[in-house]
């Protein structure tokens, strides 16, 4: 018998540690690093890191590196060498594009060439999964197991982590209950929880959705600003309401409400992106300047939930061809694409046009 947490539980702990500003230990074969999120870094922790090894690296994604005009010798990421006198402000200016235009970085950034960046790559994936900026400060650490035990830190085995981060966490159906709604009195809300205790996702059944026929379905990614606040910057709120209205009118449908705020980067990062959009960057450029890809969502989640509810075929309400492709690839057949062309405003015309030209959305 062992009460030890497994790798998915340790990764959940590591995400929480990064969010709190506590370092984690990533142990690979023959090498290990101590890593901290740049976003939650303090001068004290930086000094502590330097006491462990006086050679901190700031790992950033190649997207962020391109904006900083540095070399990403590691391909998808770069290991920026910290000058001896660099402080937390310096680290945060590397990681966070908020002041890129106001205070361009002085001098070229030096990045590591050669050596192994695998541990840093995994640390960046963890920062993204923690919905933080994708940037970490890291130093090498000898004897990682003893170091983690002495300091009470979470230690992650790199090989296990790498494999686990590619998989998705199995979802458990937690509870479902009747929910009469304006669009249909026959509603039912199901709550799904990932095994690692991560963010929950919801499925809302409207009317009587038969399992042996294609169901009218929508995979809706959470948009706090659009869904709840009536933001005019996107089309999410009107799309959500139009999808539900159509399901109500047809008498059946299933709405998946996926907690993938900001195309999977989280609300804080989405607001960072909005602030860059006010500096003139479009929705895709803003994501890249922050160090993210255009879209960080995993739509396999949607097919997992549909399958667990017993659906295998859908009429999908979407303008996004990537959602259709992912459904088909993961065993849900899309017999029809039902367009959702609502919610165009003077504020979001540019956003919708960018989605059409850069992300292949159908206008
Ligand atoms: N990063 C980022 N996310 C945004 C921005 N505007 C909206 N979003 C997010 O984009 C997502 C939109 O999701 P959906 O409407 O489900 O997806 P879609 O890819 O537009 O596809 P369809 O609506 O199905 O056509 C939500 O998670 C929003 O929070 C933005 O400017 N930047
Ligand atoms: Zn939105």
Overview of this structure, please?
38% of the residues lie in helices and 21% in strands. With 363 residues, it is of the alpha/beta class. Strands 7-8-9-11-10-12-13 form a seven-stranded mixed sheet, sandwiched between helices. The protein has a six-stranded mixed sheet with strand order 4-3-5-2-1-6, with helices on both faces. Helix 5 crosses helix 7 and helix 11 (267-277) packs across helix 12 (283-290). The radius of gyration is 22 Å and the shape is globular. The model has no long low-confidence stretch (mean pLDDT 94). InterPro entries: GTP_cyclohydro_II, RibA, RibA-like_sf. Catalyzes the conversion of GTP to 2,5-diamino-6-ribosylamino-4(3H)-pyrimidinone 5'-phosphate (DARP), formate and pyrophosphate.
CATH topology of the largest domain: DHBP synthase
Structural class: alpha/beta
Overall geometry: globular
Count the helices. How many? 15
Radius of gyration: 22 Å
- Ligand inventory: guanosine-5'-triphosphate, zinc ion
Major sheet: arrangement of strands: 7-8-9-11-10-12-13
Poorly predicted parts? none
User: By CATH's scheme, which homologous superfamily of the largest domain applies?
Assistant: DHBP synthase
Reading off the top of the CATH hierarchy, the class of the largest domain is best stated as Alpha Beta
Main pleated-sheet profile: 7 strands, mixed
The average pLDDT is: 94
Report the end-to-end length measured between terminal Cα atoms. Answer: 57 Å
Which architecture of the largest domain does the CATH hierarchy give at level 2? Alpha-Beta Complex
**N-to-C series of helices and strands:** HEEHEHEHHEHEHEEEEHHEHHHHEHEH
Measured as a percent range, the helix fraction is: 25-40%
Oligomer: single chain
Q: Write down the domain tally.
A: 2
How much strand? Answer: 15-25%
The number of distinct β-strands equals: 13
